[in-house]
Design a protein that fits this description.
By secondary structure, the chain is mainly alpha-helical. Helices cover about 80% and strands about 0% of the residues. The chain has 15 helices and no strands. The radius of gyration is 21 Å and the shape is globular. About 50% of the residues are buried. It comes from Sporosarcina psychrophila (Bacillus psychrophilus). Keywords: Cell membrane, Membrane, Transmembrane, Transmembrane helix. InterPro entries: Chr_Tranpt_l_chain, Chromate_transpt.
Length: about 400
């Protein structure tokens, strides 16, 4: 029996690795697009989790600092196959872009990849994927006028106040509104998600998160070690970022360009390359670390910048499930889930739509890709390939 159970566990881990790696190879368009890819693959196609559990996980990741899409991917892996599943899911989703950016840093061609036609096509793919995900999630999370109004408030607030902490403020206000408006609300389809993490382990993760945040600068000063200083800078950048990967880029520039650790030209070349690869934008750290200290530096920088997100999501998941099953908290979470829809729509407009749909022909390609995904039910990787080819062809017109 133990052997059979072990085989099932290995099969689940292998399946999780293959699926997350495919997503890591094909998920272009930034964190909001990644959530769309995850929703299509894990919720719609594989049904590894229900809509409400996914929405709650997205709400938690939006509230925590760090890369939201990576934290959602880790959470899905944990729900599927425990802590090891979370690690496997993270490695699969992150590894392709890390390898690509380390190789680019080693070659440092400095080509203008950001303006390539196929890159523009992949941006249009993100439009189709995000639109499809938002429509599907909105049906479940904003079924009534009150929640539609909260989503509208979140949409306007996020677009009007485009700061790193505006998103968190919108979520807090939405939670308060939900607590007030839905405290008597009852749902018949409550689903309890099982996170196979002991609360003692979660507490250790949270203590480690705050311990490293405060101790690393001290160790840096005492030892004067270049490696400790680099680890501290990347860890702090990953720990203090609200608003996703686009926010971490200026933080990393402030950490490393003025100090002379990397030149402005090399930084901008890596920025363009990061926009060209799939997966989380936080993997920009792999490029920076490689420029500074070779491929070993790239691996250390990647580990350091993602470690806070990993510790936070593992530390929060078990308590999050307890909170969301509490009758006094359910209303607040309903408000937060509605706000997430508004936040996703805001991100869909800016930067996804504004940087992708530049002409009528772009909109035509987006409509075709959306129809392939929503109506013809084609796999996401076909959408990605079609978008890349379409974007290349558009440059010829």
């Amino acid at each position: 029996m133990k052997k059979a159970k072990s085989n099932r566990g290995l099969k689940s881990l292998l399946e999780l690795f293959l699926v997350s790696t495919r997503l890591g190879l094909t998920s272009f368009g930034g964190p909001t697009a990644h959530l769309g890819y995850f929703h299509e693959e894990y919720v719609r196609r594989r049904k590894w989790m229900d809509e409400k559990s996914y929405a709650d996980l997205v709400a938690l990741a939006q509230f925590l600092p760090g890369p939201a899409s990576s934290q959602v991917g880790i959470g899905i892996g944990v729900m599927r196959a425990g802590v090891l599943g979370g690690i496997i899911s993270f490695i699969g989703f992150t590894m392709p872009s890390v390898i690509a950016l380390i190789l680019f840093a080693l070659l440092l061609t400095g080509g203008d990849v950001g303006n390539a036609g196929w890159i523009h096509g992949l941006k249009i793919v993100a439009v189709a994927v995000v639109a499809h995900a938002i429509i599907g999630m909105a049906k479940n999370l904003t079924p009534d006028l009150t929640r539609k109004s909260i989503a509208l408030f979140a949409l306007i607030g996020t677009l009007f106040l485009q700061t790193a902490f505006a998103q968190v403020g919108v979520i807090v206000i939405a939670a308060f509104l939900g607590f007030i408006l839905f405290k008597q609300h009852k749902e018949n389809d409550e689903v309890s998600s099982q996170f196979p993490i002991a609360k003692s382990v979660s507490v250790i993760c949270l203590l480690l998160f705050f311990g490293l945040l405060f101790l690393l600068p001290v160790i840096r000063e005492v030892t004067g070690s270049y490696w400790v200083a680099m680890f501290d800078s990347f860890y702090r950048s990953g720990a203090l970022v609200f608003g996703g990967g686009h926010v971490v880029l200026p933080l990393l520039e402030q950490e490393f360009v003025p100090t002379g650790w990397i030149s402005e030209e090399s930084f901008l070349a890596g920025y363009g390359a990061t926009q060209a690869v799939p997966g989380p934008l936080f993997t920009f750290a792999a490029y920076l670390g490689t420029v500074m200290k070779g491929w070993q530096g790239g691996l250390v920088a990647t580990f350091a910048v993602f470690l806070p997100a990993f510790l936070l999501i593992l530390g929060a998941l078990p308590f999050w499930d307890s909170l969301r099953s509490n009758p006094k908290i359910k209303g607040a979470i309903m408000g937060v889930n509605a706000a997430v829809i508004g936040i996703l729509i805001a991100a869909f407009y800016f930067p996804i739509w504004t940087s992708s749909i530049l002409a009528p022909i772009d909109f035509a390609l987006a409509a075709l890709l959306f129809s392939m995904l929503a109506f013809w039910k084609l796999p996401p990787w076909i959408i990605v390939v079609t978008g890349a080819i379409g974007g290349s062809l558009l440059t010829l017109l």
